[in-house]
């Protein structure tokens, strides 16, 4: 089967459904698709590997690069639908512990959507505290926070309301 990537969006999560064989010949196509997805303010990305027959080290490299980039931006990545042979490659490479792996798309989307929502709330509070987008110089949290307690209170309220209820 030829390699293909189907891109969709579900509940605020960008889903890349891969099929065929992901190897050194097809990894550049996946890199292009992930670059498109990440260029759209993507903070939650799911690799649905249900129809992926084979993955080689070049494919693993793309997944790890995407994971690092999203983590640096406060986003999340997950995998779902790994068949036995694909799972074995992730296990042997030691990548199974690096990413959340879910049995199906529905569970993965639910987990990532919750994380993306909280990440978005955190980014909003961070921008508020640091006054990002204002023409002033580099953000200096300590000086501005002390000088503007209303912004601190508003950021705290945003974070409080966005947090999940205590268990």
The H/E string reads EEHEHEHEHHH
CATH level 1 class label of the largest domain? Alpha Beta
Indicate the radius of gyration in whole angstroms: 19 Å
Termini separation (Å)?
Answer: 46 Å
The helical percent reads 40-55%
Query: What do we call the CATH topology of the largest domain?
Result: Transcription Regulator spoIIAA
Number of domains: 2
Shape: elongated
Low-confidence segments: 117-123, 135-146
Question: How would you sum up this structure, described in words?
Answer:
The chain is of the alpha/beta class and 167 residues long. The protein folds into two domains: 113 residues, 2-Layer Sandwich (Transcription Regulator spoIIAA), CATH 3.30.750.24; 44 residues, no CATH class. Helix content is 51%, strand content 22%. The protein has a five-stranded mixed sheet with strand order 1-2-3-4-5. A hairpin with a 2-residue loop joins strand 1 and strand 2. The longest helix is centred in the last third of the chain and has 26 residues.
């Amino acid at each position: 089967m030829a390699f293909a990537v189907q891109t969709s969006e579900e509940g605020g999560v960008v889903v890349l459904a891969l099929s065929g064989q992901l190897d050194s010949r097809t990894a550049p196509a996946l890199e292009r698709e992930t670059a498109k997805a990440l260029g759209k303010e993507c903070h939650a990305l799911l690799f649905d590997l249900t129809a992926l027959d084979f993955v080689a080290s070049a494919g693993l490299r793309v997944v790890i690069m995407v994971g690092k980039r999203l983590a640096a931006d406060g986003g999340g990545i997950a995998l779902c639908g790994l068949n036995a042979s694909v799972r074995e490659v992730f296990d042997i490479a030691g990548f199974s512990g690096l990413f959340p792996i879910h049995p199906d798309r529905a569970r993965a989307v639910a987990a990532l959507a919750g994380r993306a929502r909280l990440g978005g709330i955190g980014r909003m509070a961070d921008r508020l505290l640091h006054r990002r987008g204002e023409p002033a110089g580099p953000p200096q949290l300590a000086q501005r926070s002390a000088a503007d307690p209303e912004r601190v209170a508003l950021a705290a309220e945003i974070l409080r309301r966005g947090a999940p209820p205590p268990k």
